[in-house]
Design brief:
Blueprint: H1 4-10, H2 25-30, H3 37-63, H4 68-77, H5 82-102, H6 106-114, H7 121-131, H8 136-159, H9 163-172, H10 174-194, H11 205-215
Length: 224
């Protein structure tokens, strides 16, 4: 295992399409729920412990070698909003292209063939981590970090927020990110004995509602 692969996978410049998505920050800014660094931190904290935890656990389970098709169905069940399912699969398709070019593997090829329109992005990322020789905790970290770094980066563009302040938000969340990654990896470990119901199903209804509304906006800066 090369831990440096984790840095590549979690790098915002990895060509997986995440830069075009705000993780719900754009509608939150428009609604006035994100207006400064403090409110951005609150938003990211809520996202981390709900959607971030679910995605991190799915990714950790895929990295642990659990059936990615079953995990893709689990992801569907935990994503009730059509707009977010569509986004997750588009991002999964882009992640698949990047992962197969970077860490080719028969497992990635098999998932790409079974889900030609894209599997959910956390599942693909977890399988990419597995192909890169990373462990489930590494995959959980990559996804958990992505779930807060995306909105933080988007807020810089949406609010002209000082990038130093946005980075400080991520630093303030570091301990909680550790906790979420640990919880996600532990849930993935329990799948073998307890089945996929061991994976968390935390919800963020406001993120779901605003994502569906945002998808219908005629003009927007971010795809989601």
């Amino acid at each position: 295992m090369s831990r440096a692969a984790l840095l590549i996978l979690a790098d915002g410049r990895f060509p997986a399409g995440g830069h075009a998505h705000s993780g719900g920050a754009e509608p939150a800014v428009t609604a006035g729920r994100i207006k400064d660094a403090a409110s951005l931190e609150s938003f990211c904290r809520g996202r981390l412990h709900t959607a971030g935890l679910v995605a991190a656990a799915l990714s950790a389970a895929a990295a642990a070698g659990h059936d990615p098709l079953a995990l893709d169905d689990v992801a569907d069940a935990r994503t009730p909003v059509p707009a977010l399912r569509t986004t997750a699969r588009k991002l999964g398709r882009q992640m698949m292209r990047a992962a197969r070019a970077t860490w080719p593997s028969p497992e990635l090829d098999a998932l790409a063939m079974a889900r030609p329109r894209g599997a959910h992005q956390p599942v693909v990322l977890g399988l990419a981590a597995r192909s890169a020789g990373l462990d489930p905790l590494d995959a959980a970290y990559a996804v958990a970090y992505e779930n807060v770094s995306g909105p933080a980066t988007a807020a810089v563009r949406l609010l002209s927020l000082d990038p130093f302040d946005a980075t400080a938000v991520l630093a303030h969340l570091a301990t909680e990110l550790d906790q979420v990654a640990d919880r996600a990896a532990e849930a993935a470990r329990r799948v073998r004995a307890e089945g996929v119901d061991a994976l968390p199903a935390a919800s963020a209804p406001l993120l779901d509602i605003t994502a569906q509304q945002h998808a219908a906006w005629p003009v927007r800066l971010f795809a989601s």
